[in-house]
Description:
Elements: E1 3-5, E2 11-15, H1 18-21, H2 34-41, H3 58-71, E3 76-80, H4 83-86, H5 96-112, E4 115-119, H6 127-130, H7 138-155, E5 161-166, H8 169-176, H9 188-211, E6 217-223, E7 227-229, H10 234-257, H11 262-270, H12 281-287, E8 292-296, E9 301-304, E10 323-324, E11 332-333, E12 338-339, H13 343-355, E13 361-365, E14 370-371, H14 386-404, E15 409-414, E16 429-430, E17 434-437, E18 443-446, H15 448-459, E19 461-463
Parallel strand pairs: 2-3, 2-15, 3-4, 4-5, 5-6, 6-8, 7-9, 8-13, 13-15
Antiparallel strand pairs: 1-19, 9-10, 11-12, 14-16, 17-18
Helix pairs in contact: 3-5, 7-9, 8-9, 9-12, 13-14
The chain binds 6-O-phosphono-beta-D-glucopyranose (BG6).
Amino acid sequence: xxxYIFPKGFWWGSATSATQTEGAAxxxxxxxxxxxxxxxxxxxxxxxxxxxxxxxxFYKGYKDDICLMKKLGHNSFRLSISWSRxxxxxxxxxxxxxxxxxxxxxxxxIAVGIxxxxxxxxxxxxxxxxxxxxxxxxxVVEAFEKYATTCFDLFGEKISKWFTQNEPIVPVEAxxxxxxxxxxxxxxxxxxxxxxxxxxxxxxxxKAFKEGGYTGKIGIILNVTPSxxxxxxxxxxxxxxxxxxxxxxxxxxxxxxxxFPQEMxxxxxxxxxxxYTERLDxxxxxxxxxxxxxxxxxxxxxxxxxxYMPHPDAPFMPEHFFDYYDMPGRKMNPYRxxxxxxxxxxxxLINIKSNYGNIECFISENxxxxxxxxxxxxxxxxxxxxxxIDFFKGHLKWVHEAINEGVNVKGYQVWTFMxxxxxxxxxxxxxxxxxxxxEKDAERKVKKSGWWFKALGENNGxxxxx
Length: 466
Ligand code: BG6
């Protein structure tokens, strides 16, 4: 029987974001963010028309939720602060009720012995900031820096791990290329500006953190999905390299190494899409890199050389350089439509060790979203989600192997503690260790995976047939 025991002090826990769990989107002085606004205007874009006000009600139930987290083996938990709850207009007045709310959460976590990891931005641009252009506008970069400093001042004593952003490439892709987030723009050049300003914002926040003498570490959370080419053919390999440039290295290189890949700059130059920059930006980005890297991993990216040339007049997309590849026989999570490839997590970690100075890192999200889990309930009404336990085990084995090979990986946080609101998918795919019954006032019930996770945390590992 194989046993997988992790280093002493390994971080076990889960991650979530404000908009996806808090609910209470329009009370106690919270300002509107892009999700509130988009839902109000186009509710039909959201699965079953469930919006950000109807998320898991963490705002109300955080005390019990934190108690349950403790019971389920957590020693760490990542949450995000809602910018528009704390500073309703994105800049200016601070909402005292939000200060109280986040202080209560942090105090509660600390009291039960769960270390809070706090992220400052998880896809939730305040509407007032979006109305002046969102990340396209440098004023928003400045406002973000002020908001971050406000958070450091207000909560800094309680937090030793800060994160500037979660998956900053997602608002770029989803909001400015593929029409999945507000403002639903399809424009490569604008997407590049948004991405550039997000990176600059992260570096400026790190600068403010370091210069302000705050204690603790500051990092970023990235989805660094590796690209796997269909074959060893040079055209397939080139497709993989370019996909990697766009979707991984664009954020990973500046965040960890302080510079952009030359090849990427050349492509942008060729496409006449280099972003607007200012004189001191380069120095700030190169000097203020992250202390710690959170890695979100769900699925690999399989690519191949292009089958057909894109329409010459169609809007330019990164997919101009490669096609996605449906590898025959790949293992799928059919609900989310994502491939399950456990070794991918190891490949990422080895890449971080070999090419990114073995920076301190941790798995900051990994999980499996499944539709209609009710059908897996046993007689006691507990969801028997063995598939999720297998998913976690399969990935953890590879994390364990990476540790054996010297990767500086310090923890594993799943997505997510309780079922939450997945943006446009709302409550379609459920990810939680704990189910949330929307029909019964968001009643929580621990799933089988939740009890398995408890044992995982308590034993600091698992054995094959547990
Ligand atoms: C990550 C995000 O990309 O994946 C989360 O950080 C998100 O916000 C999670 O919910 C799962 O993806 P999805 O699209 O199924 O919600």
